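Dear Dr. H.,

I hope your travels went smoothly. While you were away I took the liberty of generating a structure for the chain from your last submission, since the lab meeting agenda had it listed for discussion. I wanted you to have the full record in hand beforehand rather than looking at slides cold. The sequence, exactly as received, is reproduced here:
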Amino acid sequence: MSWSSLTPPMQKAQVALIVCKKRDRERDQHQPYKVIEITPPPKHLGTRCFPPNLQCGESVTIEGHTYTISAVTHRYQLRKGKYEPREKRLDVLSSGRYILNLYLENLLQNS
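The corresponding predicted structure, in token form, is as follows:
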């Protein structure tokens, strides 16, 4: 038996659609966000459901780790003369790194 007969045939790339749990949507209107830890090198933390009103400086917990939101990005795409939401993204830093960055920025401004 050859290796090629063991591997499945190539398929078209599948797009994963993340849908927040029904109970979350009804209660708090959670929405999916693409989460990226921006500490070099950037690390994709997956797509997670959060409330729609997140802001910079807020803390979120993902898989037991606490992160602080550094940026919230909403991307839109023009379709048929209207802009439609395409992607929501959170850029996060570990809470310790976020506090260290604030401290270093403060030192730089005061020097």
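Two observations you may find useful: The longest strand covers residues 65-79. The radius of gyration is 19 Å.

With kind regards,
E. W.
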